[in-house]
Amino acid sequence: MKVGFIGLGAMGAGMARNVAKAGYLAAVYNRTTAIAQTLAAELGVAVYDQPEALAATVDVVLLCVSADADVLAVVKAIATTIKPGAVVVDMSTVSSATAKQAAAILAEKQAAFLDAPVSGGVEGAKNGTLAMMVGGDSNVLERVRPVLATMATRIVHIGATGSGQATKAVNQIMCAGINQAVTEALAFAQAQGLPMGKVIDVISGGAAGNWFLDHRGKTMTNGSFAPGFKLALHHKDLRICQSMAAQTATSMPLTDMTVTAYEQLMADGFGDEDISALYRLKKP
Ligand code: NAP
Description:
Layout: E1 3-6, H1 12-21, E2 25-29, H2 33-43, E3 46-47, H3 51-55, E4 60-63, H4 68-78, E5 87-90, H5 96-107, E6 112-115, E7 118-119, H6 121-127, E8 130-135, H7 138-148, E9 152-159, H8 163-191, H9 196-204, H10 211-221, H11 231-247, H12 253-267, H13 279-282
Parallel strand pairs: 1-2, 1-4, 2-3, 4-5, 5-6, 8-9
Antiparallel strand pairs: 7-8
Helix pairs in contact: 1-6, 4-5, 8-10, 8-11, 9-10, 11-12
């Protein structure tokens, strides 16, 4: 099975390295070509300067780009050259509607599509320990599972096309709430004059312990907000969640509050920082 990887950003680069380590990766493409050339040289794989050229040569295309319009632009491009029977696995976080549109475009070319968004951050991408939620044909998933297993330790088939992205929306809503809770609690601790390292260590081992506290607690309280997960990307995800919730009249005050706070931070020039930059608005 020859695999190509499109989108070598904070997530994609680590994921592509793990696919390469297992011997599946044949080719890479990145919009900013220099990034693809450097990684291709490191991994000893082919590099293409157009996604169409990559798609013509592989059996599986893995995709991890930014937002809905980017996924659709890439899918439309690769649909012009993709081999019948090939599989496209999109690991970007986008809407269920985009996943369905991408699947329909590829179906016209007899190519399969799985929406397979991931959770676990850049650390999970680097270590191959992501959680992956998959929508689409379960038989297609079984065909490509060995490739996906190089990037994710937990791969769960949720249901039809779009259901992976709907599950990721659930994850993003939860992350918004956790971000609110952790940044607020740690700002309170700092205002109390507590020793932050000790506070984070002891709380991590108890009922309030969580991934975000473990991975971002110490950095945020030291005023470091390097991504990680870019705040502007989480904002994009939460806007998707809001529009999905509106269709079923579901109220999501925590999500709404987080969107408003992120918009303030983005207006202040912090959109490329990690989502833990929410701490900026909480600290006294
Ligand atoms: P990132 O570092 O900003 O990388 C985005 C990648 O997409 C870059 O390689 C970029 O190319 C490429 N790209 C964007 N628009 C494109 C287009 N129109 N055509 C071709 N390539 C395009 O973002 P990331 O953190 O890796 O996130 C990627 C996706 O994973 C997003 O959907 C995000 O929501 C999701 N995600 C992120 C995390 C996280 O913790 N970071 C966790 C789970 C899921 P250039 O190099 O040319 O800009």
